[in-house]
Amino acid sequence: MKQNKQLNYYLDLDYTIRLKKNGDGSYFVEVEELPGCFSEADSEQAAISMIDDAKKTWIAAALERKILIPEPARDEYSGKLHLRLPKFLHRSLAHHAKQEGVSLNTYITSNLSRGM
């Protein structure tokens, strides 16, 4: 029962799945953090479906053999970004922010989010 709980713990983690179309039209899919955990299929949907089984098999085998199972990296962002700009661009951005009555930070953030 303990192994099952551990298996479910790992299966619930948000691993990075990479999908690539091969030259022959088939699809290769892998779990980035789990070396050797991959599958191939004729369609994108089938490949994604098959990687779940491959991941379960990989993790179960690692638990049975008491092999350390890597967890997905947790990227945490502070929300701060230091950026170097050409002087003319900095000046232009500051001018537009002033015209709109907002801070330079608010102006840049607003324009970046609209462009994404």
Q: Just give the CATH class of the largest domain.
A: Alpha Beta
Largest sheet: 3 strands, antiparallel
Annotation, overall tally of beta strands: 3
Helix content: 40-55%
Unreliable stretches = none
Q: Compute the separation of the termini in Å.
A: 46 Å
Structural class: alpha+beta
CATH architecture term of the largest domain: 2-Layer Sandwich
CATH topology of the largest domain: Double Stranded RNA Binding Domain
Q: How is the largest sheet built, in terms of strand order?
A: 1-2-3
Task: Supply the key terms.
Double Stranded RNA Binding Domain, 2 domains, 4 helices, Arc Repressor Mutant, 49% helix, single chain, 116 residues, alpha+beta
How would you portray this structure in words?
49% of the residues lie in helices and 12% in strands. The chain has 116 residues and is an alpha+beta fold. Strands 1-2-3 form a three-stranded antiparallel β-sheet, covered by helices on one side. The longest helix is centred in the middle third of the chain and has 21 residues, at 44-64. The protein starts with a helix and ends with a helix. The model has no long low-confidence stretch (mean pLDDT 89).
